Amino acid sequence: MSIEIDHAGKTALVTGSGAGIGAEIAVWFARAGAFVCVHDVRADKVAAVVQRIESEGGRAVGVVADARDDAALDAMIDESVAVLGGRLDIAVNNIGMYGEFSPGPFSTLDGAHWRGLVDQNLVITALSAAAEARHMSASGGGVILNVTSGETTRPAPFMAAYGAAKAAINHLTQTMAVELGPLGIRVVAIAPGTTLTETVRDVFDEEHIAALIAATPLQRMTELDELGRLAVFLTSDLARCITGQLILADAGAHLSRNRPPNPNGEAGQ
Questions:
Q1: Which of the pair, 72 or 151, is modelled with greater confidence?
Q2: Can you give the pLDDT at residue 191?
Q3: What's the pTM?
Q4: d(CA 207, CA 187)
Q5: Which fold has domain 11-196+221-255?
Q6: Among 58, 90, 112, 255, whose CB has the most other CB atoms within 10 angstroms?
């Protein structure tokens, strides 16, 4: 006997899915049978993920848009639903960025830094979710999954604005769950720990990665495919009684008191 998660016949939008965690989530939805819309601001990245999905026999379409512009974000959600056949069953909000800003001591962060990171993380997620919810409520419900960060569950030295903006998404997830539940929409969030994306490999050397691993109870880092599998599960009928929850996927890093500083003196992500 076996239990398989089947998203056949469902549609899924994954924002910010041109690379890293978002791309892996999109691939795993396709592997589970969903028709997936891949979104990113970079056309070449979108095309690469769509091609990867199709090479495995999955179904995917791409939408290119800069979600930092409110009008473009709304248009992107509408276009995504249209290319998916007019229905949205699952939406993953994975856009989160530092943009032109850099980590730094709390006392040195100016208003532009704070407003920029709140806008590029919390506000984009909120506006995306609102547009997604409008489409889902019109067709009987769905599931919205917000991607936050392990930095929301502990102090985030040198990343105060980023951590605070992501933590606000955790609270937003609960509020959304209460408001949208009667409309048949579940809302959940996942908080990845440090994950071995290409960006992380470029920023951290092997010594620092080893220190991060040593600081986790499971003595390992989060793998990309584990986040994809988790997203597929949480948005499936096997998790249909779960809403308003934040699921940590960080190998227990939130339990550690020995997080190493990163190479330029900032806290590990």
A1: 72
A2: 94
A3: 0.92
A4: 38
A5: Rossmann fold (3.40.50)
A6: 90
Tokens of 136: 């889902």
H helix or E strand, kind and range, residue 31: helix 20-31
Q: What is the pLDDT of residues 6-20, one digit of tens each?
A: 999 999 999 999 999
Residue with tokens 């609102």: 130
Query: Tokens in use for 63?
Result: 């939408």
What amino acid positions are annotated as catalytic residues? 162
How far is the C-alpha of 145 from the C-alpha of 186, rounded, in Å? Answer: 8
Q: Which helix (H) or strand (E) holds 244?
A: none
Residue 267: the pLDDT is 36
State how far the Cα of 164 lies from the Cα of 122, in Å rounded to an integer: 9
Q: Cα(175)–Cα(13) distance, rounded to whole angstroms?
A: 21
Q: Measured between alpha carbons, how far apart are the two ends of the chain, in Å? A: 40
Dihedral angle at the C-alpha atoms of 186, 142, 25, 64, nearest 10 degrees? -120
Q: Where are the domains of the chain?
A: 11-196+221-255
* Residue 259: DSSP 8-state: P
CA dist 79 to 68, 88, 138, 255, Å?
Answer: 16, 11, 16, 42
Higher pLDDT, residue 223 or 263: 223
Per the DSSP assignment, residues forming a β-bridge with 92 are 14, 145
CB 150 within 8 A of CB 254: yes
Give the single-character DSSP code of 204. S
